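Most newcomers find our protein records easier to grasp once they have seen one. A record pairs a protein's sequence with a compact description of its fold. An example says more than a description, so a record of this kind follows:
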Amino acid sequence: MTKSRNPSSSKNTAAFAPRVAVAIMAAGKGTRLKSQLPKVLHEVGGKPLLAHVITAATRVVPPNDVFAIIGHEADRVRSAVASTGVNFVLQSEQRGTGHALMVAQAALSAYDHVIVLSGDAPQITPQTIARLLNFHLDQQAAMTLLSADLDHPTGYGRVVRKSARSAEVQAIVEEKSATASQKKIREINAGFYVFAAPQLFLNIEKLSTANPHGEYYLTDMAEILREGRQRVVVWKTNNSTEVLGANTRAELAFIDFRMRIRKCQSLLATGVTLPLPLSSCVIDSDVEIASDTVLEPFVQILGNSHIGAGCRIRSYSVIRDSEIGDGVLIRNGCILDGARVERNAILGPYSHLRPGSDIGEGAHVGNFVETKKIKLGKGSKANHLTYLGDAEIGAGVNIGAGTITCNYDGVHKHTTVIEDGAFIGSDSTLVAPVHVGKGAYVGAASCITADVPEDALAVGRARQIVKEGWAREKRAVRKARC
């Protein structure tokens, strides 16, 4: 969705381009989750609740027009979503949703309209936010509520309209105050709003704490504005699930499950093959996978991972924040974290690519090979039982089984350079910093501590000594002692 300060509206945009801000309520503790973690930092679909809401908001307005109102564990919340580029307002004392906008008044009063979102309702879509805003503008309302019909609305505030066909709100009735007939109403107040900023802040001081919790409730603004003969309306979404918040662990699990189902369904629709996707694969919401890639059961694709076309990811592999090119085969049990793998490479089984690993086109990283902060060139191979850290390895290099680049001297990390076409024999130890030249050979079981010139052979091991008959004499001595 295109970001704009000029939402399409037949009655308003012709006259002026309204300045629109988004305020996200993200200050609460979430005591019902029974957790030390701030409520909005609990994760669904692979990222915090608040991050999902911010993503939706920033597809409607630019990030600099989004204000996250934070309070409990404010520094932790700010740090978790700082990369989004949104603004933060500190609500140091949490005294309700109305109080949150009182605290944010200085930041928001320069805008014409303010959209209010809940930081714990991650399924809200940018399309619904935009439609709510446009309805608000078309209605020339002071306050617009988002509502939804629920089959089981118990516990939610009910929206009472002036008439069945009217968009105007007569009242918002909380469950505890509702009459028997009002409790039969299925239309609930979702807790998302749009306000005309001048009317909101002209009247916000009229909010009262005369309620059992002693807090300022934003819902009370509907009655205040109506009494001031301001227009209060409601727009209902057809997708009731997108307004549901996560107040309990069970609700978190339900939302996470729904998000992952939708992600799998969208991938299937774009040509990705997922055998048993809904019961075995874990795919985060920001993951991108191209067509004709196959994810076998019990694969996890996490974080901001991108996987190309025609790949095959075999069972029990875990890929996080990594970029995989086209045609890559990842065999069983591989772990990739912050890695980059170019097209037609082959990994595994049981390879471990740590952050900074860059595997070239057609390269092979095999059984129980661990890499960290390396560049492995085109067509190079490290097929068995090897550790490669802080290394620059050229094209067409063969790394024998059991090879180690000794990159750490106890204080600093050092780099190993292996040029194109070199051959490193099995069980070699390369003590960095060291440079192996183009086409050079390193003999098996060598400990290399000095540079190896191009096309040279380096052998760094003790000379073999053979003592004829030694074993026979040793056995004879042992037998005599017995």
The chain has ten helices and 38 strands. The first strand starts at residue 20 and ends at 26.
